[in-house]
Design goal:
Blueprint: H1 15-46, H2 64-92, E1 102-109, E2 112-117, E3 151-154, E4 156-160, E5 165-171, E6 176-180, E7 185-189, E8 195-199, E9 205-211, E10 223-229, H3 231-247
Parallel strand pairs: 1-5, 4-10
Antiparallel strand pairs: 1-2, 2-3, 5-8, 6-7, 6-9, 9-10
Helix pairs in contact: 1-2
The structure holds copper (II) ion (CU).
Copper (II) ion binds next to loops.
Length: 248
C-alpha cells in the first residue's frame, strides 16, 4: 500500500504505524508543494509587470490566505497530536517486561557496534573502561561470575523473531545513531547514557545495522549486520557462541 514511499520491508510490529505517519507527512508535503507552486505561478502571471506597471501599496485585502494558513496549521496539529505523538509515546512508554524479552547491550564506537549478550544467567557481567583492550572492546571483567557466560560480538546482532527485543544503547566516544531500517528503529547512542530502545521483530532475514549520524571520518563504514531468526536458530547460535567461550 505504501510502496510509493520506497521504504524497506516493514519487519517489526510497530513498523506499519511509523509508515502511516510517514505517508501522512508525505501527503501533507505534496499538497503544500502543489499548492505553493500553483500560487507562485498564479502570482507570476497575475501581477506581471505588463499589466501592473506601478506597484500598489494597499497590500492584501482578502482573508483567504489567512484561512489557508490556518488550515495548514490545523492539519499539522492533527498530524502531531493524533498520529505522531501516540506512535512515539507507544515506543518510549509501554516497555515490555525484560523477562519476556531478549535483552542486549549495544555499545557504539568509532566505527563499530559492540554487542553484549548476558548469557545463560540473564545477567550482564561487570565491565570497566580500564579493561578495554583490542581483544576486549567492551572492557568486560571475565572474573565477575555474571560475566563468565556473557557473549560478545562485533558488528553482529542476532535476535529471535516474534519476541520483544530491548536494546540498551550507549557509546564509547561520540554520539552515534543506531539504525535498523527494516525494523523502523533509530535511536541515538550517547556516551554515559544507557538508552533503551525496544521493538518486536516480525520478519526473519539478515540486513544491515547502520549508523545514521555523521560520527567521524570513517562513518560510512560503520555498518554491521543483524539477523532475525526463529527462536530455535537463535538458541542454536547462542549455544555455538557459548561453546566458543569455553574453548578459549
Ligand atoms: Cu557512528
Amino acid at each position: 500500500m505504501l510502496d510509493w514511499l520506497g521504504l524497506p520491508i516493514a519487519g517489526s510490529a510497530h513498523a506499519a504505524d511509523v509508515d502511516q505517519v510517514m505517508a501522512l507527512v508525505h501527503w501533507l508535503m505534496a499538497v503544500l508543494f502543489v499548492g505553493w507552486s500553483a500560487f507562485f505561478i498564479y502570482v507570476l502571471i497575475r501581477f506581471r509587470r505588463r499589466s501592473h506597471p506601478v506597484a500598489t501599496y494597499q497590500g492584501l485585502r482578502s482573508q483567504w490566505s489567512t484561512w489557508i494558513e490556518g488550515g495548514v496549521l490545523v492539519a499539522e496539529i492533527v498530524l502531531l497530536a493524533f498520529f505522531s505523538i501516540p506512535v512515539w509515546s507507544a515506543r518510549v512508554d509501554a516497555f515490555p517486561s525484560e523477562a519476556n524479552s531478549t535483552v542486549v547491550r549495544v555499545v557504539a564506537e568509532q566505527f563499530a557496534w559492540n554487542v553484549h549478550y548476558p548469557g545463560a544467567d540473564a545477567r550482564f557481567g561487570r565491565s570497566d573502561v580500564a579493561l578495554i583492550a583490542p581483544d576486549n572492546p567492551l572492557g568486560l571483567d571475565r572474573s565477575d561470575p555474571a560475566a563468565r557466560d556473557d557473549i560478545t560480538t562485533i558488528n553482529e546482532l542476532h535476535l529471535p523473531v516474534n519476541r520483544p527485543a530491548i536494546i540498551y544503547l550507549s557509546s564509547k566516544d561520540v554520539v552515534h545513531s543506531f539504525t535498523l531500517p527494516q525494523m523502523r528503529v533509530k535511536q541515538d547512542a550517547v556516551p554515559g547514557i544507557a538508552q533503551p530502545v525496544w521493538f518486536t521483530p516480525m520478519e526473519t532475514g539478515q540486513w544491515n545495522m547502520v549508523c545514521s549520524q555523521l560520527c567521524g571520518l570513517v562513518h560510512y563504514r560503520m555498518v554491521g549486520f543483524y539477523t532475525i531468526q526463529t527462536q530455535q536458530d537463535f538458541d542454536a547460535w547462542l549455544a555455538t557462541e557459548a561453546r566458543g567461550l569455553n574453548e578459549q
